[in-house]
Amino acid sequence: MKSGRKKTYAGFGFGPIQSALFLYEAYRCGNFGRFAVVDIDERLIAAVRRNGGRYTVNIAGQRRIDRATVEGVELFNSTVAEEAERFVEAVAASDELCTALPSVSVYAAGAQASVAGLLARGLAARDRTAAQESPPTVVYTAENNNRAAEILSEQVCPLIPASIRKNVQFLNTVIGKMSGVIADAATIERLDLATITPDFPRAILVEQFNRILISKIRLPGYRRGIEVFVEKEDLLPFEEAKLYGHNAVHALIAYLADLKGYTVMSEARHDSRIMATARKAFIEESGAALIRRNARAGDPLFSEQGYREYADDLLTRMTNPNLNDLVERVGRDHARKLGIEDRLYGTMVIALQQNVQPLNFGIGAGAGVLSMIRRREELGRQPEHLPNSAQRLDKDTLSRLLREIWGEHPAAREHGQRLIDLTWLGVQQLRRPGSV
Fold this sequence. Notes:
Low-confidence stretches: none
Structural class: alpha/beta
Mean pLDDT: 94
Strand order of the largest sheet: 5-2-1-6-7-8
Number of helices: 17
Radius of gyration: 23 Å
Largest sheet: 6 strands, parallel
């Protein structure tokens, strides 16, 4: 698509998903002539500006870490009124946009300078600047929420004219790319990473993966500038595979690794017991359940061979030694990750609904509880029923703790006792000498 007018790309947030995925792919494809991004990190914005609008990312393959530089980026500070207005002008001229923020809750924060406010003002400005009908535009939402597009659309669309609204589509995404920002100078030196700019002491490190799934685009005649993404008619089955496959097993490995005293995820790669448990959980439990649940989707992923290939690929990627993925990072926020709808127990509930017994996920959940006890002093808020030591964890205490975390959720009422039983079996297995 490298002919005709060059497109304009606009982004909200300059974290690793924006800088090393969406903006990086927009730059690499050659279809865009302008790149405008808004953020609130004054030091980062100033550093990229001093570097002439250039920044560098580190891309981890299985054998080595490569570097890539993106050029021609305009960074704006949304907290500075004049800069926010210049970014609004860029939005008005944009063809593809992306929000890559910590949470969908950020959309409305900041009134007129909010994401929703800036986006609405930019889109509405097309009524005043466009001599012809408003050009079609897509907005990728990358906040790891399966309703992010709908949430942002509900906040923006009432603020723009119908003539603009009909030519804008908000897209959900399924992003299976692992990424992070490293600020530790010793780690940066050890891995020989390039910092974001020569004088800014942080490095972006992402895995070499760009098969990103997005909602089906329904704007007549629209052609994406970022061509590498894959459109799906219905994203929900793939969102479930991400949460209840990728994320669930990632957490399972992290919690088992934490109990072994490992620091980085790649150490688990050489632990045959951990990897055997992870593979069984991935293929025989997550896979068996999601294949039964989504077989009608007709996608090769939801077949025995397709899901096995998906699992084996991710098990290799999740333990990539060049990613420097910290066990503590993957496992943190225990209470959320042990929630009834989240990765471990969410997977176990679906498995039970599909008549699959999630024994290996029970081991992972047990490891998650033991890791939570082990790291109790690091928790932002300690659950009332969290024991002081792993030795004081019995089945009654476990039951009270999990019921406290789950609350009155319907799945907890229906499946709670079975989930507690499976978790307790996992804890007992982990206590045996020579266990996982």
